[in-house]
Fold this sequence. Notes:
The longest helix has 39 residues. The radius of gyration is 23 Å and the shape is globular. The chain is an all-alpha fold. Helices cover 74% and strands 1% of the residues. The two termini are 38 Å apart. It folds into 2 domains: 385 residues, Growth Hormone, Chain: A (Up-down Bundle); 51 residues, no CATH class. Strands 1-2 form a two-stranded antiparallel ribbon.
Amino acid sequence: MEAEAALSRFLRVLLPIAVLNTIATGMLWPTLPKIILANFNGDSARASIFLGSVTALNAGLDLFANPMLGALSDSYGRRVMLLQSLTVSCGCNLLVAASPTLPAIVCAKIAFGLTNITRAVGYSMIIDLSHSTAPSARIHSFGAIGLAVGIGHAIGPLVGGIIADKSPRAACAASGIVMIIATCLAHGMLPETLSEASRRPIGVKAMRAVWSMSKLRVFAHRPLAPFCVPFVLSTVATGVYSLWFFYTEQRYGWGAVLNGIFLAMYGILTAISQGALLRRLVPQHFTSAQVCIAGYFTNALVFALYGLCRKGWALFSVLPLCGIASLSDPVLRSTMTSHVSPEEQGLFQGGLASLGTLGGTIGPLVAGALLSIASSRKTDCTQDGSTSPARTSNAACTDILGAPFFFGAVLFGIASISAVHAFGEMRSPGAQGHAFKTMPRRLIAEPSDDDGTEHEEGEELAPLVLCDTQVGSDTQRSANQHGGANQNR
């Protein structure tokens, strides 16, 4: 009870920061496409390619930097890494406000990609305080983060769209001011969650090991590896959202305000689902596996409907399904973190963020290419022959614009099937023997110059027991005894 009370007190500080951070980020969603489109003189095809490319660049830098930043949070603490991430975000927003040009946007994306670890550190801080709580408390805490993000998504795009409709530079400046408030709140009120005893020193050689994804051996461990497939596929699919504003502008003629209203409604439904509905569903009525798989299948349906809708108002009818679709991510994250020790959570969350940005690198590039091709095809179609309203509204001219979302629907369908397989592996009798492994306590140790092994000579490594909370206490005791026997040998 004391651990849950401490976690509850911490969330009351963290959640307002998460809301402000998401508001600031959401304000840029309708703003950056407007700035980019103005720099390309209204050429949507070229603007789509550019936005997809800079989004992929940002994600690629995240892929490189997140494991390093996560490992640094294991060594120097969560709070300092969160503060540097928020501070750089402030500078990036103000830079674009001062100079709304393409080079400024590229520079801001590079700086943001090399330093952004806000979400991963937030999850690590929750995990630091939830080791002594019930497994459902961690799921509910992740759901609370989803609630905060949903509230931010409800406010940020709407406010940003209204301001950007008058002045995109003012919207960027307002986003920077909100981020400054979030940074000051974090500096003044957010406590450190990683104790000195749990911190791990890290050297230059160890940092080189972190940069090598092959060193993140925790993802190769059997309980975790199957879950990486649906996680990566879902992040590739959600990369399509980076082109949302260009898609709705070309197909339905939406502006920044109407897009802001739609995303506000989306954020409200997401907040209700992850903040209230998830708490009632798991574990009282459904298992984590059932909720996660249902969320992935619903995502596939949502993306397919996005691509099929021929009228803008029809998109609003899809929104109720988005609430169910949003439940898969916090459940999957909670399931994966239950297999990782407290000392490795920063590295794991950084690695998980890198897996996400691996998908985030591919998704915007593919979506941008598909939308650019579709835009060119639509232009050729409307200019070929008659340009009457009947001709321009022909399904052959407009339905092709839904290609990026059909691509996302296929990926979510595959992710659903892989999630079924992953949860089946976790619960199968054969997997129970592998649910607990004895692994080095330090995944990142100084490499030996002699034999290439990843521990110093004479160093005694304590076993790291990765336990699956779904298996049961008897199996856990047996596995711990087995791990102890391995240590004695």
